[in-house]
Each structure stands twice: as C-alpha cells, then as structure tokens.
UniProtKB/TrEMBL annotation:
NCBIfam families listed in its UniProt record: gcp_kae1 (TIGR00329), T6A_TsaD_YgjD (TIGR03723)
Domain Gcp-like: 27-317
Organism, as annotated: Polymorphospora lycopeni
Binding site for Fe cation: 114, 118, 311
Protein name, entry field: tRNA N6-adenosine threonylcarbamoyltransferase
Role: Required for the formation of a threonylcarbamoyl group on adenosine at position 37 (t(6)A37) in tRNAs that read codons beginning with adenine. Is involved in the transfer of the threonylcarbamoyl moiety of threonylcarbamoyl-AMP (TC-AMP) to the N6 group of A37, together with TsaE and TsaB. TsaD likely plays a direct catalytic role in this reaction.
EC number: 2.3.1.234
Length: 348
C-alpha cells in the first residue's frame, strides 16, 4: 500500500554491510556486501578489518538498494540504523552514514537494536507478529529467549547463554573439525551426511539441578569442550575423525536444547507463537526440529527464510517500519552507537 511508510535500514554491526528498503511489511530491496572472506583466515571477525570494509562498502551498497527498490533517497520516509549491540567501530560507520543521509535528505532517523531487528525481519515473510510471542535469538554473539508483548516498546528477557553463543559454538567446533569460518553453514552441510545420534554429546543446563536456576538459560561451552575431547581422543588413537557424524551429533545437541527450552518458555508463558531469528536460525536441522516439536505442542513457529536470518539491512528497515507505524518518536541526531546496547532497548 502506497500510504505505508517507506523505510530504509542500514546494518553494519559485524561483518555485513547491509542496506534494505521496505514499505510497511513489504521487502523492496536488500543489498549486502560482506567482508567475511577477509576474516576467514583469522577464524573470526577482525574488528578493524570489518570497519574499513564497511567504510568502503556503505555508499555502493546504499546505491544498489535504492536502485533495486526503484526509489531515491528523497522518497524515503525514515532511515533506521543499527545503533547496537555490535563492534563499536563497525557500528560507528553505519550510524555516521545514516546521520549523513538523514541530514542531507532531511529525514527522521531511528537508532535501533540489532537483536530486535532479527525478530522484526520475520514480518517481511509472515506478516504482523502475533503478540505475545516468544522470540529465540541465536546468532554469533547472542543466544537469548525473550517474551515479546510489543516489539516496539521492548522485550522481556527470559534467559540467555551463560557462556558461548550458539553461533560461536558452531564456529569453534567447525574450526576444530578443519571446516571454514563461519562454521554454521559447513557444519550444517557436513551434518546432512552424518548421524545425529552417533555420539551422545552433553545438553547444557538441562539437568534438574541446573533447571532450577537456569530454566531458560543456555550453555554451549561444555558441549564445545566435549567435542574437542572426543576428537582429540580419536586422533590420539590414530583413528580417523568421522567429521559428518561429529558435526551431526554436535548440531543435534545444540538444536535439541534450543528447541526444548524455547517450547518450555512458550508453555510457561501461555504463548502460542515462537519466532526464531539470528544466523543460527538458518540451520536446516533447527528449522525442522522446531517445526516438529512445536506442532506437537500446538505452537506456531515462524522462522524467516535463511537469507534473512543472517545479518542484513532489511531487518533494520523492518524494525524501523514497525516503529514508524507505531508512532514512536525518532532518535536525536546525536544518537550514539552503543556496542553493549541492552536487549530491553528497542530504539534510542
Ligand atoms: O546473525 P548473524 O549473521 O550475526 C550475528 O549477529 O552474530 O549470525 C552469524 C552466526 C555465525 O556464528 C554462523 O556460524 C551462524 O550464525 N550460522 C549458522 C548457519 N548459518 C549461519 N549456524 C548454524 N547453521 C547455519 N546454517
Ligand atoms: Zn545478527
């Protein structure tokens, strides 16, 4: 509908430079430039390299998004930008660019939370999010369960990882299996040839004594160590490492815990909708297992298409569009980038 707000979103919190454009819940453009290849040989994102890559990519990516959507900056109703959490230098590039465009084109600016944007992006695929919903955010930097009463007003954290994030566990396990960075996609692929029940890896924080204090929290560091010990034992014995079985069994342990805790959170709060976001939501096993287990409990699960699960500009535009539609006031032009922005802050 032409009277819905036309919102442009800028994402630079990690290694993807993203510019997306939406009208209401309709995705018009999603331009992306990734510096992932420049980080691969370091086995993780190097902040300085990411910042420099954003600086080089931001203007061309902006142009591509506007071209794709067939609009000019003058047509845009509001500019949304990831203000945090993320890498400080990387965030600064996006925030500075957004301010520049906002001043030059005289547009309101919304500094938004990257994690809330991972939830909001699902509306581009599945329409308005029924609230309350439980959101599970699983990315390279975060793993959280949230209660979403009103995404534009804030979310209530229910639990989070007490050590590694789910994506981080995929990246670290990939590394010890000799698979490339980022580790999620190659583990996902290798696991398809393996048996998820081959090795009984631990399920963190699921024992009765842990559930008392950490019912909705996650822990993946023990799992990562268990995989490392298992692989080392094989190598010491001079036996080949069955990469596909290790990948599948590790992935099964992660997905088992994630889905079990997400469903428990839905049931505890009487919520019938689970939305999963963040890079790990692209995982094929997680998507299938969530669907199967939620169906058994009468819970509707919503997961964005894999391309929208990993970082992109469309998710920021989607959240911006929500905020504009809800009549939330824009941010001040001196809005800061906040690398540690709390989950409870949706916009600044
Ligand atoms: O959301 P995202 O793009 O960036 C952050 O905000 O962190 O998430 C990146 C993380 C990486 O750890 C990557 O390994 C993981 O998402 N990931 C996956 C898959 N695709 C990306 N993990 C498991 N399976 C996948 N298919
Ligand atoms: Zn992310």
């Amino acid at each position: 509908m032409a009277d819905e707000p036309l919102v442009l979103g800028i994402e630079t919190s990690c290694d993807e430079t993203g510019v997306g454009i939406v009208r209401g819940h309709t995705l018009l453009a999603d331009a992306l430039a990734s510096s992932v290849d420049q980080h691969a040989r370091f086995g993780g994102v190097v902040p300085e390299v990411a910042s420099r890559a954003h600086l080089e990519a931001i203007v061309p990516t902006m142009r591509r998004a506007l071209d794709q959507a067939g609009v000019t900056i003058a047509d845009i109703d509001a500019i949304a930008v990831t203000a945090g959490p993320g890498l400080a230098g990387a965030l600064l590039v996006g925030v500075a660019a957004a301010k520049g465009y906002a001043v030059a084109a005289e547009k309101p600016i919304y500094g938004v939370n990257h994690l809330a944007a991972h939830v909001a992006v699902d509306t581009l695929e599945h329409g308005p999010l029924p609230e309350p919903a439980v959101a599970m955010l699983v990315s390279g930097g975060h793993s959280s369960l949230l209660l979403v009463d009103d995404l534009t007003a804030g979310v209530t954290p229910l639990g989070a990882t007490i050590d590694d994030a789910a994506g981080e566990a995929f990246d670290k396990v990939a590394r010890l299996l000799g698979l490339p960075f980022p580790g999620g996609p190659p583990i996902d692929r290798a696991a398809r040839e393996g048996d998820g029940a081959a090795i009984a890896f631990p399920r963190g924080l699921t024992a009765p004594k842990d559930l008392a204090a950490h019912r909705f929290d996650f822990s993946f560091s023990g799992l990562k160590t268990a995989v490392a010990r298992w692989v080392e034992a094989r190598e010491r014995a001079g036996e080949p490492v069955p990469v596909a079985d290790v990948a599948a069994s590790f992935q099964e342990a992660v997905c088992d815990v994630l889905t079990a805790k997400a469903i428990d959170a839905c049931r505890q709060h009487g919520v019938e909708t689970l939305v999963i976001g963040g890079g790990v939501a692209a995982n094929s096993r997680l998507r299938v297992l969530a669907e199967q287990r939620c169906a058994r409990h009468g819970i509707t699960v919503r997961v964005p298409p894999p391309r929208l699960c990993t970082d992109n500009g469309a998710m920021v535009a989607a959240l911006g569009s929500h905020l504009v539609a809800a009549g939330i006031a824009p941010s001040r032009l001196d809005l800061p980038a906040d690398s540690a922005m709390p989950l409870t802050t949706v916009s600044v």
